[in-house]
UniProtKB/TrEMBL annotation:
It holds the Pfam family FMN_red. Residues 1-23 are annotated as: Disordered. This is NAD(P)H-dependent FMN reductase. Residues 1-20 have a biased composition (Polar residues).
Amino acid sequence: MAGMTDPTSPYSPSPETALSTADRLDQPPLRLAVIAASVRKERLSRVLADWAAGKAADIADVDLVDLAECELPDDEHLEPGGGPRSAIADHIDRADGYVIVTPEYNHSYPACLKRAIDWHYGEWMFKAATVLSYGVQGGLLAAEHLRGVFAELHVVTTRRVVGLRAPWNDIGDDGFTPPPGTGEALDEALRELTWWATTLHVARRDRPFQR
Ligand SMILES: Cc1cc2nc3c(=O)[nH]c(=O)nc-3n(C[C@H](O)[C@H](O)[C@H](O)COP(=O)(O)O)c2cc1C
């Protein structure tokens, strides 16, 4: 994928590493779920998720999960470890990794995303996630709050996240026009995500964690 290699970074797995691992182990194509994590009528998450999904589709099979389009059961039925199977459980379950497209609301991420997380359990486990956050200053507090929550579910978050500053200035009739460098930043985060998602796919299959 163009623009993804950063040979100067000692922390970046090379694309060759991920590819050769996948080839050697004869694994199915990577599957990512891109989650649009706000549900307001005038929300931006869907247009940004559409953009992210287009980029992710260059490297994986992609499911777009729009939280505005899926109704979760009432919280009175919630139990430790999830609850009755939801309409999006299968999408979360079959993904190897997630791209969470989330705004910052009051220095965290929206309640609808927390509900989507809490309503699932095993479906998330031992997977990888990266975050495309947005807000006045890039929404990075939402991204950082997600790390702690996902850690409880054995979801590894990538070192790199992408924070979009005031993306409402870059959205028009043609959708989102990323400012210079933004596409490349998402490519880098997706490359980390691919490495983790591939590695964890193999680990879940060959060496499942004994709880
Ligand atoms: C309830 C609420 C709280 C917000 N809090 C923050 C905030 O803490 N930091 C910030 O940068 N933007 C904040 N904003 C502005 C959002 O970044 C902006 O409205 C964004 O478009 C929201 O995402 P959405 O359109 O997908 O819902 C807030 C917006 C709402 C609706």
